[in-house]
Protein 1
Amino acid sequence: MSAGREPLRAAAQLALAGLIAALLLAGTWALTRDRIVAAEHRAQMQALEIVLPPDRYDNDLVADAVQVQAAAWLGRETATVHRARLRGEASALVLEATANDGYAGPIHLLVAVADDGRVLGVRVTAHQETPGLGDDIEAGRSDWITRFAGRALGDPPAADWAVRRDGGRFDQFAGATVTPRAVVRAVKRCLEFAARHGDEIRAAAPGVTLRIESAPDDHRPR
């Protein structure tokens, strides 16, 4: 074989090796894709089930969701709202929300609101509050976060949706008032948001993005 053909042969072998590697990777991805998607779906469902009782829905909460741009209400530029349905009827909303007035940074929440306006469950999904003080908002640290269950607008009255130090109904923590105050405000805004815009959210097609122009009465632009 002439010396001139050696580089061409080497290049062809390299290209063939690259093609084989690409085909192997594509085959591996195809074989594992469904399992990865299923695992992600299970993880999302398990997170939602923490705040939403299983007897409240029979639909796919992950698939039946919309994106909502309502930062004044939910504290983030875009939030996911999952719609729970039971036998075809709307039963609850599960809202992602963020309290941006936490002591050490944003406090991320999941808030489930029943169709009758009552809280089904609240959980903190991420925060940076001070260990031993503000972290009592975690369900694993105390039962404080569970006390929202069953509450609604008017129960307690609007003026009592605050920590006791501010004249409200909800306990603060020893040495930490800012953290629970932020969570109480965020939960109340979720209830107000669901009351005002729930019908619009329930009627929207799955996967759409809704832009909400309204704001809470107590909203102050930063």
Protein 2
Amino acid sequence: MNSLPTEVWQYIFKLACVESTRTGSALSRTSKAFRHVLTPVRFDSVRLNSLKQIEKFLAVYEAAVAEATSSKSDPPHVRHLLLAFLPGQTDVIVLGPSFHFRDFHSWQEVKKQWNERFVSLMTRLFDLISPDLLTMTVLQNHEIPLPYVPCSFPALRELTLLHEDRMFFRMPAKPESWMEPSDNEFYGAGTPPDKEVLAAKPIFPALERLHLVDGEWEAKLPMWAVVAPRLTHLRVSSASQECCDVLSSALLATPPTLSTLIVQPHSKDRDARIANAHPGVDVVILPALKRDLKQEYWYERLPREWVSRQTGGKGAWVRSE
């Protein structure tokens, strides 16, 4: 232990704890020396799949912060976060393909309670960790619509979103999904800010790389120039024809800092119009997906890319596949 500098041990521990808080817990119980060295990097990389996990994590993390403060040592920080709210993995019931009408009303009541708890816990989580967060991946499913959470990420550099971005902002406005219990006060989160407010105070002021995957992104693309004004790299994977049409428009507002655009169409090999619409931007059109992939494909792939970026890999930022 004494033969290596503290920085080297912390780097080793950081790699060991990628995507696993259990490893950090085990190492912290090894010895007082390990615990002291591990504390700043123990929560460097965190994956959370349910509200129950978030609640447990908050209790452990807040205790670690309090302990570091009392001992006047370096506090822990979360640099990399993966959130996965997926059927069969998270703690909300998903309606099956055939259900009785009374089951739907019962489900709506349960979902409303889940939404209220979601907003409370996620607001608390983001308030604690967002100042230091560098990368984030959010895996969502159309069967589990997520409520809006007021938040900002001043240091976030890289973001990957599967299916939706409704947790962060609600522009342009559209009717709520029939599956989503309505709440005029957004479950205590307050009314989402409008475009003018977002332009004055962007949610992602330092974001450089954005990966949007398998969703109806054509309606939301113009807003990303507002909420992430310093974006340099944008990738859209499994892009629909409608999304490709928007990307092909010279009228599409993009951040002036954008230097690289990667598009993987859902069902078309090439779309030269996209390159022509963005002079001065390095446009890469990847081959279309060879088959109609289920979302489960992305459930496995995107976490791998998240880990890859933490360990010096390219992740999704490649010119060929």
Protein 3
Amino acid sequence: MNHFADGGLRGALADLIGSFRNRLDVVEIDAAGIRIFEVRIDEIGTPYYTRRASAKWSTLTSSGDEVFDAVLRVAGDLISADEGDPVVVACSADGPEQEAALRALRERRPAAPVVEASGVKVGDLLAEVIAGTPLRHAYDLVVARERADGRLELAGRPLFASGAKPGEDAHVTVTCTDTGGLLLAISAWSGPLQPSGLVSVDHAPLSPGRHLLRAVLERPGVVRFPEIPGLRPDTRAWADVVAALPARLRSAPRPAHLVCAIETSGTAKEFEARSHWAGYVIDLLAERVPDPQQLQVSVVGYGTHVFGTRHADRSRPTLAAWSASTAQARAALESLRPTEPTYPNAAQLEDVLAEVRKRLLPEPGGTRAALLTIGARPPHPPPGSALDRVPPCPWRYHWLDLLRELEQRHGLRSAAICDSPPATRSSPWHRLGSAALFQVDAVNAEELAIRLGLVTPSAGALSLPFVSQNEDLGGRQ
């Protein structure tokens, strides 16, 4: 027997566990019996061990077999015959059973070293040595990287290089884009953009924005983020996480101009309900389009014409704000007041369209033009017609011709919110609400803004850290 101290066995196991290719067999022989351990590595290079057999000397000989024959039979079943798979025998006692076992093991693997391990439990020692083994594969943080075309793809941000030792730490800056936090997925990467296997996936309850995180390599297969309170394992299937990733995080912004036309005629309660939705849509756009250069808002209040007097009707819509910011539009909206209806069956909508035609200029850069009309009364019929005996507009405006012209010249999209549902499909409200038509008590503002082309649909929650196309990954890509 070769005699080594415990440090010799520990060192021998550390060297072998850090370098073996397929498997390592470790045989423990002591006064009580024999135990065989097998060490392997998983798909991400993390070593682990299992106890394959354990038997007392009395058990081995209970069937009448000699210790030599019994151990040779067990070794033939459990110990690799491939010389490329190392075998270590740790022996801590002398005696006829131990000698017979050693002879059987030498017959199976003649070159296997025998190491004295007095007072050492091999299972405990294996756990300690494995916990202190340097990494075989590099560990990366899985991120969603934005390509030049705006699409997202998986990539790795380096954390620990191959050979890193337990106890080392690394610092990484991440960007969280979801209010629900993000996933910190650690992977051993075998090739570009495709993780070979996940080391761990934890949910971090971080707020949106940039965060500097400290990662600690506790042992192979275990990475901690000790400074993140509330970190917990995420149990979702990785395929589900990847499937839920949006194709893009954001769309290239396009400038937009929204004209809000609010009928002021009616009761204070009716006017308040209409103004509420105009303000809600403006606030939604302020949140979704934070760049003031990308959004203009106009606010127009309109009432009803006056008929049956000796004087011509000179009333016009109230231009509260034009091409204003969301804050200015909000203030302009609050400046409007309800008015008494002077005619019950129609309102100045055609006058609003004429005012928009006069002021809405062709703008470069593909500006999206949108009209949101909120009211109760339809526009006046075209000149020369008397629909349900409703008189035409005193200014002889043709609302449908004006709307078509705005659509053709400016690509205008129009949506409407009505106090009550239109009586027929031929109602002008269906044409004014061609992009979206809602009742005042059942409005989906998000859908309305999307249908007007003012915002893009939410691409989906990005659960992984985000890396822009200009950001350096610092290594593997």
